[in-house]
Structures are given as C-alpha cells and as structure tokens.
Amino acid sequence: MIAFTEFDEAKSVEGYSLSAVFDFAVLTNYTKVKILPPEKFELIENRPLYAFLTGNLERMNCKAFRLHYGPVSSGIWEAGAFEVLSYGERILEVVPLLRYKNRGMEKRVEGMDVEKATCLVEKFCGTFSSSYSTAYCIAVEKIAGFESEKLDLARTLAVELERAYNHIHTIYRLALAASQKVAVSHLSALEEELLRINYKIFGHRYIFGFSRPGYVKLKSVDVKSRIKNVLKEFDELVEELSVSKIFIDRLHGTAKISRSEAVKLDTIGVAARASGLKRDARMLRRFEPIKIVEDGDSLARTVVRFEEVKNSLRTALEIIDSLSLKEISNEVKVKSGEAISFVESPPGDLVLYLKIKDGRVEKLRVRGASEVNFLSFAKSVVGNIFTDYPFALESFGLSFADASR
Amino acid sequence: MNLLYFALAYALCAIVAIVSPRVSYILSSAVSLALLFNSPNFFTVILSLVWIFTGLWSVNNRSKKDALLYSAIIFSIVIILASKSVFTFLAGWELMTIFAFFSIKNWKSTYKFLAFGEISTIFLLLGFSVALATGVSFSNLYRSFAYPIIFLLCSIGFMAKMEIFPFHIWAPSAYRDAPTNISVLMSSCMTLMGVYGIVYLLSQSPPPEWIAVIMLLLGAVTSVYGALQAATSENAKELLAYSTIENDGIILVLLATFAIASKYSKILSAFAITAVLFYAFFHSLSKALMLLSAGSAEKEKVSTLTALAGYVASLSLAAIPPLPGFTAEWMALETLFQSFDLHTPIKLLIVLVGALVALSAGICAVSMSKMAIYVFKRKSVKSSMYSLPLLILSAVIVSIGIYPPAVIKLSSPLVLEISGLKATSFLGGLLAIPKGLLIISGKGFGCISPTVLAAFLLSISIAIGAISKLTFSSVRMCEPWTGGEKSENYDSSGYSMILRLTLRLFYGTEEDKCLVKWYDLTDRFYASACRSFSDLCDEFRVKLMNGNIGYYVLYILVAMVAVLIYSILA
Amino acid sequence: MWVLRGLKKGVITTKFPEKIDEEERELLVGEVVVKKTLPFKKSIHIFFADAGSCNSCNREVEMLNNPYYDFHRLGIFFTPTPRHADVLLIAGCCKEMVEPIKRAYEAMPSPKLVVAVGDCSEEFCSLCELKADAIVRGCPPSPYKILEALLKIVGKEVLI
Q1: Which domain holds residue A83?
Q2: Range of the domain at C146
Q3: Backbone dihedral region of B136: left (phi > 0), alpha (psi from -120 to 50 degrees) or beta?
Q4: In A, which residues are within 8 Å of B484 by CB distance?
Q5: What is the predicted pLDDT for the residue at A37?
Q6: pLDDT for residue A58 is more than 60
Q7: What's the whole-model pTM score?
Q8: What are residue C101's DSSP bridge partners?
Q9: Can you give the residue ranges of every domain in chain B?
Q10: Which of A197, A335, A351, A324 shows the shortest CA–CA distance to A268?
Q11: Which of B366, B374, B487, B498 to mutate to test the interface with A (most CBs of A within 10 A)?
Q12: How many CB atoms sit inside 10 A of residue B196's CB?
C-alpha cells in the first residue's frame, strides 16, 4: 500500500500509528508517498477506522433497544451524542455521533492569508489550541524551509504545559465520577493554578495567540516556584489517590483494550501506551515514551497520565531554565507548497496537512486524535455495565470539538 | 336457601351455553346476584361478587365451549361449598379440575395443569381414606387419632391447588393459555377453594405445631419466590399468575400463624383469622379486576375506562392506600410481628417470616408498576360498554378500601365460630375518630383508620386542585425532555433486567450476545426429573422386559385361566 | 491525610464581588452586557448547553466549580436537566445544534433567561430565534466575568 517518507525514521512499523498515514493519505490525496510491498498491510476497506469514519459500523440485529444519550446533556459537558444499544444493564454497542460539532472550520480557512489563518486554526479545539497552532506553524515553516531551535523549545513549553492541565482535567473528571469530593477540589484548584501560570507566561489562559509562523509570544515572568509547587502538590495527590481503594476499584478492569485489539483498532496516544504499544508523535524527535503499561484498562491509562503530568512539568521547568522568556520573531515568507506535520496533543497525536498557493491557504486537513480514539472507546466499552460508562469515557480524555471540526 | 338449588341453576346455565353463550353469561350473572343476597357463608359472598362481574364482562366472548366450561366450573365450585360428605367434596374437586382441563389451549400447559390437579386430588383422597379408615366422617375429622396425618395429607392437597412452592409451576402457563374468564376462575375461585379447605380443617381443630411450622416456611418461600418471578415476567397473565402465587403464600403464612397462636392467645388467633378472610376477599376481587382489564387490553386498544380499572387494580395489589390492599397487608404484617407476644420459641421464626413477607410486598411494587406502565398504556379510543363491569368492580374495590369495617363485620360470624371472638371487637374509636372506623390490631399494638386516611387524602387533593386553579394563570404543554433528540424508551424487559443480572443464581440467567434467557428453576427441575424417570423406564423396558409382547399376553392369559380353574375346583 | 492537606493549603477562595487583589485584577478578561433581569433575588439554577463551541468556554464554565471561584457561596447551582433551570447558558455556534437547544429552551419553565457566553454565542442566539438576555463577550471570557453576569441578572450589584 502507501507509506510516508518520514516513516523510515520511526523505529518500527508499530512505532508510529498506521492510521496517521493510511486513512489520512487516502482522504487527502497526498501524493508524495513511497509505495511499500502490499503483503505487509491489510486492504484499506477492511480497516475499522475507515469504516468508522465513513459510517459503516456493524449493526447487530437483536431484541434490544437503542438509547440516545443526547447532544444536550450534562454528563458529557460537550455537544456530542452516543447511541447505546442495550437490553438492560449491559452495553452491547456504542456509536458516537460526532456531527453536532461540524462547524466547517476547514472550509472557512481556505482562501485566508497564511498568518491570519493561525488565529482560526487554534480555535478548532480551544483546549488543545497550542497543539493545533504548533502543528500549523511547523507545516508553514517546513514549506518555507525555515527551522529554529529556540522556536521549537518555546513551542514545546506551550505543548507540555497544555498537556499537564488537560491530563489533570481528565483525572479530575474520573474522580468526579467516583464521587471523591475532596480530591476533586484539590485537582480543580491545581488546574486553575496551571491556567493562571499560562496567563502569566503566554498572555492567555488557553494559550491563544501564542504562535504564528516564525513568531512566539512569551512574557518574561518568574513562575518557576509556582510550577514547582504544582509539581510537589501533584506528587502528593497521586500518592493519596493510589491508596484510595474506591477510586482504584472503579477503574480497574473497566474498558479493557488488549494489545492485539489496540493494533487492530489503530489506538493512538495515551490509550495505546496503556495497552503496551509505543506510540507517541514525540518519537519522531528522538524522544522515548515515558511509561508503557501492559494492562489496557482505565487504571492503566490513569497511571500513564500521572507519569506524563510529572514529566511535562519537569520538562517545562527545564525549558524555562535554558530559554530566556521573551518574544521571538522571525520573518517567514511562503509562496506555495504542501507539508504534513505531527504533534502530540494530550489524547494522542495530531496530523495536519497544509497546501499553500500564492501566500494563501488552499487546502487544510486535520486529523485530531479524538477522531481515531472514539472507535477504540466504542469497542472497549462493549460488555461493561451502565455504571462504568463514565469511567470508560473520561479515561480516554477525548473531545468532540477535536473529533469533528 | 340451599346451595344445591344454586348448583342446579348453574348447571342450567351450562346447558343454555350450548345454544347461546351470551344468554348463558347474563343468566349466570343474575344467579350470582341472587346468591350474593342469600349467601350462607363468607366465601360465597366473595365468589358471587367475582362471578357477577366476570359474567358481565365475558359477554363479548363468542365461544360456546368457553361459556359451557365457565358455567360448569362454577357449578362444581358450588358443589364443593355445598358438600357435607367426603364423596361430594371429592367429586366437586375433580370436576373443577377436569372442566378447566378442557379449556386451556396449549397441550403442554394443559397436561401440566392436569398433573398438579391430580396430585392435589390424590393427596385429598389419601387423607380422606385415612379418615374413613379410622372411622370419622367429614364433619368430625378432628376426633380421629390420626388427625395429624389427615391434616398433613389434606393440607398438601389444598396447597397444591393454592399454588404453593413446589406445586406452583402449573399456574403461569395455565393462566397464559386459558381464556380470560377461566383464568379469573382459576386465580380467584380455585385458589379460594384451597383456602376454604384449610379453614374448614382449622375450624374443627388446629394441627400439631410441626405441621404449622412446615406451612409457615413453605408460605414464606412461596411469597418471596412469586414476587421475584413476577418482577421479571414478560407476559401480563404470567405476571399475574406469579402475583397470585405470592399472595397465596401470604395467606398460607397467616393460616399457619393462626394454627400456632390458637394454643396461646385467643385475641391473636382471632385477629389472624380476620386477616386471612380480609386478605382473601381483597385478593380475589383485585385479581379478578386485574385479569379482566389485562384481558381487555390484550383484545383491543386500551380505552380510558380500561386503563382506570387497571390502575385501581395494580394500586390495590401493590398495597397503596386508600385501597383495600393497604389494609390487608397491614393486617398481615401486624399479625406476624405481634406474635412476638406468644410464649413459644417459634415466635422468632414467625417474626423472621414477617420480614420475608414485607420483602415480598416491596418487590411486588416492581411487578405492579410494570403492569401499570407497559400494559395499560392509554390510547384515545372510545370505551366500549364491556368495560362497564370493570368500572363498577373498581368502584366496589375503592369503597371497600375506604370502608373496610364492612367486610370485617361480614366475616364476624365465621371468626366467632372458628376462634371464639367476634371480629368486630377489633373495631374501635380513638380521639377524634368516630367509633367503628378504627381497626385495632390484637392487643392494641397498632391501629389504622383507612376511612379517615381516605378523607384526608381527598381533602388535600381538593385543596391543592383549588389553589392551583386559582393561582396558575397559564398552562403550557411541551414535549418530554430526552436530551435534545428523540430517544427510544426502555422496554419492559429492560425494566427488570437489573434483577435478572444481579440475582443470576435464582433465575439461571444466560447472556448470549444480545439475547438473555432466564427460567423458573423449579420448572426445569421437574422437566429433568420427568426426563430421567422416562429414561429409567426405557432402561427397564430394554433390559428386563425385552421379550416379544405376544408371549407376555399369552402368559397372562394362561395364568388367568389357571387361577380360574383352581378357584372353581377349590 | 486529606484534612491536614486542606488545612495546610488554607482558604484560596476569591472575595469577588466585594474586593479583588492585583493578580486577579489582570485576569478580568471580557465584557458583560445585561439586558434583562429575573424577577427574583435569591439563588438561581443554571443549565449549561454547549451549542458547538471550541471547548474553551465549556472549560471556563466548568472552572467555576473551583475552590478559587466557588460559585455555590453566591447561590448559583448547576442542574442536569432544563426542567429545573432558570437560566440557559449557551456557548458556541453550530447549525446542527439549533434544534436541540430550541427544545431545551421549550422544556424550561418560565421565568427564564438566556445568557450567551463567548464571542460566538450571540450569532447562535439569533440563528435560534432566541433573544439573548445577557451577553458575556470574550474568547473565552474569564470566570470572573461570567460570575459578574450571573450576579447581575439576579439584580445584585457588582462594583468591580
């Protein structure tokens, strides 16, 4: 079938998610690809992700009823729906309905000026905005043939701080579902503290307006002690949560994805690392994933998240040490070209394809991590009972805005 | 008037049914009306009330066979009530079973019904033969020295008809496959005959304590078993069969409490028998109304009157005030908990059984709400005139609920005869409640006044209605909230799925992809026992008697001739 | 021990709307416009409906639950169903969500108000043919401004 040229850099076939390449390449008609021998990969039409994205999910015929867990609900806190097939307590099939957030953003960007389009790209999903804007800016700079280590470091700082507050939010949602009221207060206070730190460094709580092609905006402030406090408190919280039998019991054994299933369903990101697969977009920059767990249930994903938060905050501290926080501005001129960029957003990797013509965007196509992992969620929650549904859903850390732009 | 005249009248109705079923039904209702006003004992009051309304409702049933069998069953029941000797009692009992046997439509259910009907007849036969062998007659069985054996055998026979635990499996399939008016006769009248039999025996002399303990335990197990199975049943009539099983378990428990308490405390035993009679009254009427409404809902779309009747019946069976089920359940629980006053160690067992009965009454709410939600879904259809008897019967039930002292006064002569205290001694007055409206249980442990409660509820409803009419300026109707898009509702099997999954040992639940199967485990036990017995017979036939059948017949013939020659010569 | 940890951390709740300190003053991002108030002055119940937003307004509203803001002390509560709600909080703009949000508005009993959070929600209210009774502008507006709007629609004064 088809493979991407940068693939040779990845350590092994499994080391980078196939879905990032296959379905994506077919859906965007990206042409600069190398053809690999056909016996290594399956036909694309049988791939579950392709069927899922084009709406051919298998339907069982049975005497059960189909509940519609609606778009306006207070459990999900976002505009997304699930169709759950069940005969009572057991979940037989779940189909996530992603169409409620179809805002047509990719169409809106077409024809815009390259620099002005950054403003719209970060609003695809506000909570992952630095991942999106980083991916876009890297793509533009690749087309222009521009590289700068300082820009890379600054953007890594933003992506890691964003990863930290999003993972803490996921753990907060899990503790909320398990009614751990005190842990919930502490976790949401930590998240608020990180958002305020964001405001101090980047000028916006959700890191909007942070980067443009060739430019990053940083304010010189002294936040090292605050980040150290957050890290210390989070360490202690993790210790307390790990001995809470109720919390661990709700997560253990829920929504299990075994390693072979994860390969078949193209799971990416935190869920893949919790099922024993080494999948991380940061590996393309010679970075080893911190923690790989073999279990594949919600508890494994939470443990992976614990480690990643600590690592992100430590990385942020290191970058603040080595980089002086001030605005960095470079002139980047682009005419025409196309590029693909990969960034690790909090739930998994993000792939962005950009085509520019005469200094304006001609085609932009993004595949958010949630789009892929919703399939893994739908398959993993089959056979669980209704009360375990939030523990399965929140442990993946998905966002509907990310899954359908 | 002698009950035999009424039996003849019912036989006439049965003969008329061959010509015209409608006239037969109306005639039987008229005869029942006459019976109501001339009833010789308490049980005929209950039965005649049920027969009046069932007859009127069945007028839209065109089948001649059903009409014939309906009147024939009523004829045999009246024979049982009128019998003064063992032979007529057994004749009526067996006729009841045989006529009902012809009316069930599915052959499997039919044979199951017949099997357990014959088990009950066999035990009765054994009991009565022991009685006759020891030289006592039907009216003074208690004088026999083998009275415990007689009581045990006869009560097992009556329990098989009352659908008590190991003998209950005939009920669900029989109710499901019989026409509605015959199901009413099965649930309200045949089970009442079992109660009548045990009450008759108890009125002569109570049995030794160990038999009463057996009855107590069986009754407790039956009531919890019936309640749990009713909660997960998927067919309306099958659900009502299990509900009858549950209620009859409670009646058996109360009868056993009477048997134990009659040695120690007169007041408690009188209260126990009053509770039995009130419970039987309420159960027969409510179950009849419920089955008739379910029959209407099955045949045609549910109109307002049918739905109303269905709600009254389900609320009554779920023990909600101001309906009679509340008073009946209260009296039952009071009897069981008050027996803590007795001076015997069995009182602990009775109180434990009281807890089990309370549990079954709680689980009963699941099944009754299931009926009210899924069966009686009202569609705007004009009520036909066949729902008029349902309306009148609901009115009768509601009035009994508001004024239960009427039934207590009716049952007073029978209570006096059995236990020596008048039932009206349990009616009293307190503070502002006028005399005669308060029911006091036993030694004054507790008291309720359903009349005052009903008046209270009525006045509150009127007050709230008036206030809302005066203050609400506008009313806006809007759709139910389902999260923004249309969603399917939980269907009836999803409603009780949680019971099937958490109590999987009780139901033997099997989940296979998207189909769930659950069973009545006693039914499977009987089926496997029958299968192993027939396998044993096959083995016997193959291994021990495997010759040519002609030789066996020849051998029998030769032996018979030899015996005859020997007896002539000798 | 959770108790000791909580005691060590101390009280971090803001004293908004009475007074705020310097760090919080620079966090006041957004603009509040209130056109109508509710006819009662005590606690209000809010139903939050996402109308296709980018998720950042959702997160800001969820952050109101923090110990930093603690909206319970001001008498504001979230409900899981519109049937018990006085205020409908809308965030975002997407054509697919017009019908469900209209149904949510129908399901609310009067008196009811609509509060639009975020820059994109004003346009959504006009798409839905709903009148936005209060608007909180910003992308996303700071939780302080959302609190200010929720206090002003009950008639309470916010001088900061």
Answers
A1: 2-403
A2: 28-152
A3: beta
A4: 70-73, 81
A5: 39
A6: no
A7: 0.83
A8: none
A9: 1-82, 525-569
A10: A351
A11: B487
A12: 21
